Amino acid sequence: MDRWAFWRGRDRSAEDADTPDAQGTSDPADPWDPREPVGSRDPWDPREPVERRDPRDLREPVEPRGRTEPAPLPPLPPPPPSAPPRHTPPSARPVGPAPAYAVPDYVVPEYEVPAYGGPDLTAPQRSAPSGPGRQDTSWSQSGPPRQGAPEAPGDREMRGGAPGDAAAPPAAGPRHAAPRRQEPAPQQQPQQPQQPHGPTRGPLLGQPYGQPYAPPAPDPRRADDEDRWQRIVLGRPSARVEPKPPPADPYRPDTIFDGWSTPHLTVRLASVRGDAHRFGGSPRQDDVVVACHEPTGTVVFAVADGVSSAPLSHIGAALACRTAVNDLLVQLGERREELDWSRVLNAAAYQLLMRVAHGREPAEAEHAEATRTLATTLVTGTVAPAEGGILHVTLVRAGDSSAWCLRGREYTPLLDDEDPGSEEISSTAVVALPRLSARSRSISYKLPPDSVLLVGTDGFGVPLGDGTGLVGDLFATGLAVPPPEPRTLAHLLDFSRETFDDDRTLLAVWPRHRLPGGPR
Amino acid sequence: MAETLGQLLPVYVLADESGSMAEYVGDLNEGMKSLHVALLGEPMAAAKVRFSVLGFAHGVTERLILADLRSEADLPRLSAGGGTNYDAAFGALLKRIPQDVRTLKSQGYRVHRPAVFFLSDGQPTCGEEWRETHRRLTDRSVTGAAPNVIAFGMGSARAETILSVATQSEFAFVSLPGAQLGDSIAKFFTALTKSVVESGNAMASGQPELVVEKPEGFRLAIDEV
């Protein structure tokens, strides 16, 4: 497996030392290394001055497997006299071309983007930084002028290639048709004698008209770069597409994330739209709701996966989650000895029927219509803190979403009643709300204080498998302790891996003492 | 169960290359090309499909096996000549499909039930023994990876034969009387493309395993028998 495909925070020379033959050696700079002390640093912490490898490198040549000796460096031509000083460390130089996987150009049908004929509006972000400093970019007017000098190998680094790609073959063209963007326009000459009257100035921006937009100088206090928000790539990446808008009503954002702590429990959650839905302009059909019942300190949650064949399943998922959580909160408020779990599922199912029946008693036809249009899976449950940091978890489900106890690097399924690996052929058929399975029963667990409860849809569960691969590694490392920033979970969850393009939703609950730095 | 590398739908096109198709080989090849181009515009679906093409006449020629169409420069060209040996066609699949599914699974993929798109313009010239081969191929208790077979009959193919080839009556289509064979082939490939794309996209979650698009100019075989 291309384990190093998602390594970050290292330069190429460090990577060379880690060819497959060296697999298994611990790299102190690898934030994903399982042996890295957990919580020692947050790979997305903007304060971390870590040099990162551009994940777009994956489009560029990747080291062929089994290679142990780095190829000799190609001789670098001398820099042109007017070339700005390079900030790329020597270690970031390329080690020679290698065959790469390149996703071909794709045409997005019926999605023509008209050509843009106006002035160059190339955003500054198109210029990838050459290193942590990032001051010396090709658009910056503060740097030395570049008077049309022949492009030195390093120039490519400045415009979008990653550090170390200078000798790589030119990157493949844009991998999706919409929107097609021009490469940054050729550099303007600093003096423009062809303008007889001299440059006119814009009244508001105070900049000459007809010149490329010159953004303000980068803030040196920001040590981060845009690449930290590139998707994490596991193995072969999914094709990159610009998402199409989903239907307008109800508003369904691409990604949601949340996080907070009660006095005893820490919650992080995220739900991201899958690539297939982004590409097809469909809404995110997954949903998640979490709430705290303060009098008992119980966290109540629901995770739903709208069935893709049901056209309004995103509404079904939202209704089911909200109804289930509301019903659980009501039952907790009634101080019942035991929660009535079948009532929770029935309430969620009934809500879907009422959506179709508009308040009337639902008839048979409305059952069929709700099944056809709103079908959704649901996992709902409660987490209560117990003595010694133990999590007391109760779960019930309708459909194929699931839950795990993550402890160390081991994922223990909490809801599996069959082993999908035993089937020769994989099936995606599900029984979903508003239909209820007679086998739906609640299950309770006491999870140890050094574990994490994970509840997720199959968009997470299918690529996870048994958790022994790249996906399992990513989450075992990233969720060993609660990430300080809730958005971190959304970033992890939106990993790119070919053929896994379903919506993904994941809820994680830790005992609060696992927060980095201890309870606070 | 270890980690899943990806989820795949193996698709097989079983195309009639008998002598009677000689005039329409160009249409077949054009159809293949249009399928290829269309799938390249569907990156999500194309990533999940592994495509095989088998031509059958007296015997069977394996033109393409488990190809990732995104990395194929060209699809193979079909030719025509010989009889219409259904038995050889289903026999080849009976050997090929379980082996392919095993291969993909051993590589770490999750494999969905294969889909066979069968296209013929005539009646079998091999007697009736093909029915037993076909039964073994499609009986899930005999062949674990038994495929769904979607059958398209044109020209002199009879509705009841096509109905026997398809694994469900809603998967059996015959061209409307008087239809031009070239047109029917083009429509077949259009429907094939849509079915492959929609099935690929539906694999993500909770849908029936196969989405079959009825081609224009065809009707369900069951309406004719």
TrEMBL record, chain B:
Query: What InterPro entries is this protein classified in?
Result: VWF_A, vWFA_dom_sf
- Domain of life from the UniProt record: Bacteria
**Gene3D superfamilies the record matches:** von Willebrand factor, type A domain
Q: Which residues form the VWFA domain?
A: 10-192
| Name this polypeptide is given | VWFA domain-containing protein
